[in-house]
Design a protein that fits this description.
26% of the residues lie in helices and 47% in strands. With 231 residues, it is of the alpha+beta class. It folds into 2 domains: 90 residues, no CATH class; 114 residues, no CATH class. Strands 1, 2, 3, 4, 5, 6, 7, 8, 9, 10 and 11 form an 11-stranded antiparallel beta sheet that branches. The longest helix is centred in the middle third of the chain and has 23 residues. The two termini are 13 Å apart. The relative contact order is 0.20.
């Protein structure tokens, strides 16, 4: 039986017109590397052997820590290996100053008013607002008010997050925050009850990138082939 060769396996697939790619992503105690052929995840003895080598090169271990990493390396026959980029970031938390005013008519009966925001760096803000009452029930005007406020606050949060600027090379990553507004803590202004949102918690990350190369040189290929043929 012909000996298995990792170099020949990659070469044959490439010459047949296939794109060979290794990708990875993770951080915060979980992460993985996977292999794709023409965009389809592929798992076999060859791909697992290459992933093991890439795992050593990336050296993220168990992916534990307050960071996030992702990247892609594509097979390049010129170097007989995989070439790509690893994107690495370390996460931190910050508090932004905000100046959001919520005005609720006094005629609305409620005990507390809840506001929540969720936003990722590549998406718009999602805002959820709701009234809670201890006695009685809510009607359409409560839900209509919440719907309109959610749309207005979503724009305000988007503007706040999009304007984030750091002196420490951090970039905005996400925000998940919430507020419980008690009716008896509101400031009365004419026919309205006024609440202020003055602080918003966000998560930020650094951005760093480095070149990644997995070259199937003689030593590396020999080590992989020995495992393949032993199995």
């Amino acid at each position: 039986m012909e000996n298995k060769s990792i170099v020949q396996w990659c070469k044959d697939l490439h010459e047949a017109g296939n794109e060979l790619t290794m990708k990875w992503e993770g951080g915060g105690d979980s992460g993985w590397i996977y292999f794709e052929i023409d965009g389809e995840t592929t798992d076999n003895e060859y791909t697992r052997a290459l992933i093991d080598v890439m795992d050593d090169i990336l050296d993220y271990g168990s992916w534990a820590g307050e960071f996030n990493a992702s990247g892609t390396a594509v097979y390049d026959p010129k170097i007989n290996g995989f070439v790509g980029t690893d994107f690495y970031g370390e996460d931190e938390s910050e508090v932004l100053n905000a100046n959001f005013t919520i005005r609720i008519p006094k005629s609305f009966w409620f005990t507390t008013f809840h506001v929540e925001v969720e936003c990722n760096y590549d998406e718009g803000s999602n805002v959820a607002a709701s009234f809670l009452v201890k006695n009685g029930f809510l009607i359409d005007k409560h839900s209509d008010f919440c719907t309109n406020l959610e749309q207005d606050l979503a724009k305000d949060f988007d503007d706040l997050f999009n304007s984030y600027d750091s002196n420490n090379d951090y970039v905005f990553r996400s925000s998940t925050d919430s507020w419980i507004l008690e009716r008896n803590e509101a400031v009365e202004d004419g026919d309205d009850l006024v609440f202020e949102i003055e602080k918003v918690q966000i998560q930020v990350t650094t951005e760093d990138e480095k070149a990644i190369t997995l070259e199937l040189d003689e030593e590396t290929a020999k080590s992989i082939d020995e495992l393949l043929n032993y199995e």
